[in-house]
Design goal:
The protein is α+β, with helices and mostly antiparallel strands. The chain is built from 6 helices and 8 strands. It has helices at 20-27, 30-33, 45-53, 103-118, 133-142, 170-185, and strands at residues 5-6, 11-13, 65-70, 74-84, 87-94, 123-129, 145-154, 159-169. The protein binds coenzyme A.
């Protein structure tokens, strides 16, 4: 796929090999990697190069995603889809200097909209480690609801942690979007 999404403040685009340095710089921060299940810490340039090397343009929507660029700044994070034990899940991270400005709510909304448009699925799953209140807040704003809890391994922390699984149905997404659009025109 070669999709680019423009939001109010951000550009969501496909990764490039020269993203490695900035990805490594932003992910080599325990405040970020310690909240993700599959990202090691320390995070080296070779980890970013390996990850970028797994990228292929012909992957299905459930195995792809977007680099998040802030114009004038460059790469600030990532938002993508991957299959796991729940089904296809959305995962995301932002470099710490860019937190709490609504960027992930904006980026994830565009990515979710694209995903539901590109697939016929009835729902999209996600999840957070239970301590990750900011990420849970993002998901609740987007319309995800909690469906179960479990223990998941956190690679950076090298331990199993309480995890909350979440789900966003297409019906809820459509209702939120169309409801908001209808309210804007009245
Ligand atoms: C989670 C993350 C992506 C959020 O990105 P962001 O751009 O800061 O998110 P937003 O600004 O869109 O929204 C953050 C929300 O969390 C809330 N929040 C932030 N810190 C919080 C805390 N400690 N407790 C409760 N809510 C919190 C904010 O108030 C905001 O909600 P609001 O808009 O209703 O006020 C970012 O913090 C991050 O990358 N963290 C490290 C990696 C990570 O956790 N990834 C997700 C793994 S599931």
């Amino acid at each position: 796929m070669d999709v680019r999404l423009d939001t109010k403040r951000l550009l969501l685009r496909q990764p490039r090999p020269d993203d490695a340095l900035r990805i490594a710089r932003l992910l080599n921060n325990f405040a970020v990697s310690g909240k993700l299940s599959r990202v090691p810490y320390p995070y080296k340039l070779s980890d970013a190069e390996w990850w970028l090397g797994t990228w292929r343009a012909d992957k299905p929507p459930g195995e792809t995603g977007f680099i998040i660029d802030l114009p004038g700044e460059g790469l600030i994070g990532h938002c993508g889809f991957h299959p796991d034990e729940q089904g296809v899940v959305i995962g995301y991270w932002l470099g710490e200097p860019f937190w709490n400005r609504g960027f992930m709510s904006e980026a994830a909304a565009a990515a979710i909209d694209w995903y539901f448009g590109a697939t016929g699925v009835a729902a999209l799953d996600s999840g957070v480690f239970a301590f990750n209140k900011a990420s849970l807040a993002v998901q609740k704003k987007l319309g995800f609801t909690e469906i179960s809890t479990s223990k998941r391994h956190c690679l950076a922390r090298q331990e199993d942690l309480r995890h909350i699984e979440t789900r966003l149905t297409r019906a809820r997404w459509d209702e939120q979007r169309h409801g908001a659009a209808a309210r804007e025109t009245t």
